């Protein structure tokens, strides 16, 4: 068994999450980072995509959850994490970081983020 971590970094989306009505109307930019630990021995030996984690499917699951409105980043991150765990039973753990860029905080701020792992 050979453990490895697959990472999808800085996936960017435009979505309508937030507690304020303006956020849900105007929207904002979000980034999502995902790390998935699993056994990578078979794909590293076979060089066959059929044996590997489907990165495209991880992106699609993330996009599906991003497109459903949430008030809280915690809720959104939990939904993304759960959808990945349900789709890929062979994963040991998943870490999801969701960031809202330029959040309406009354001052200049690059982002606010929530990270969950299980």
TrEMBL record:
Function summary: Catalyzes the conversion of 7,8-dihydroneopterin to 6-hydroxymethyl-7,8-dihydropterin.
The entry's keywords: Folate biosynthesis, Lyase
Pfam families reported in the protein's UniProt record: FolB (PF02152)
Protein name: 7,8-dihydroneopterin aldolase
Pathway the protein takes part in: Cofactor biosynthesis; tetrahydrofolate biosynthesis; 2-amino-4-hydroxy-6-hydroxymethyl-7,8-dihydropteridine diphosphate from 7,8-dihydroneopterin triphosphate: step 3/4
Annotated CDD domains: DHNA_DHNTPE
Chemical reaction(s) catalysed: 7,8-dihydroneopterin = 6-hydroxymethyl-7,8-dihydropterin + glycolaldehyde
Molecular-function annotations in GO: dihydroneopterin aldolase activity
InterPro entries in the cross-refs: Dihydroneopterin_aldolase, FolB_dom, GTP-CH-I_C/QueF
Enzyme kind, highest EC tier: lyase
Keyword hit for Lyase: yes
GO cellular component, one term: cytoplasm
Similarity comment text for this entry: Belongs to the DHNA family.
Species, as recorded: Saccharicrinis carchari
GO BP annotations listed: folic acid biosynthetic process; tetrahydrofolate biosynthetic process
Dihydroneopterin aldolase/epimerase domain sequence ranges: 6-118
């Amino acid at each position: 068994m050979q453990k490895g971590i697959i990472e999808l970094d800085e996936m960017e989306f435009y979505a309508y999450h937030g507690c304020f009505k303006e956020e849900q109307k105007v929207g904002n930019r979000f980034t999502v980072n995902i790390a998935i630990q699993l056994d990578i021995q078979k794909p590293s030996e076979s060089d066959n995509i059929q044996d590997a984690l489907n990165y495209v499917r991880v992106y699609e699951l993330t996009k599906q959850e991003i497109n459903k409105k949430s008030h809280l980043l915690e809720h959104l991150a939990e939904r993304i994490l759960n959808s990945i765990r349900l789709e890929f039973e062979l994963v040991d753990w998943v870490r999801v970081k969701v960031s809202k860029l330029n959040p309406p905080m009354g001052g200049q701020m690059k982002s606010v983020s929530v990270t969950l792992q299980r």
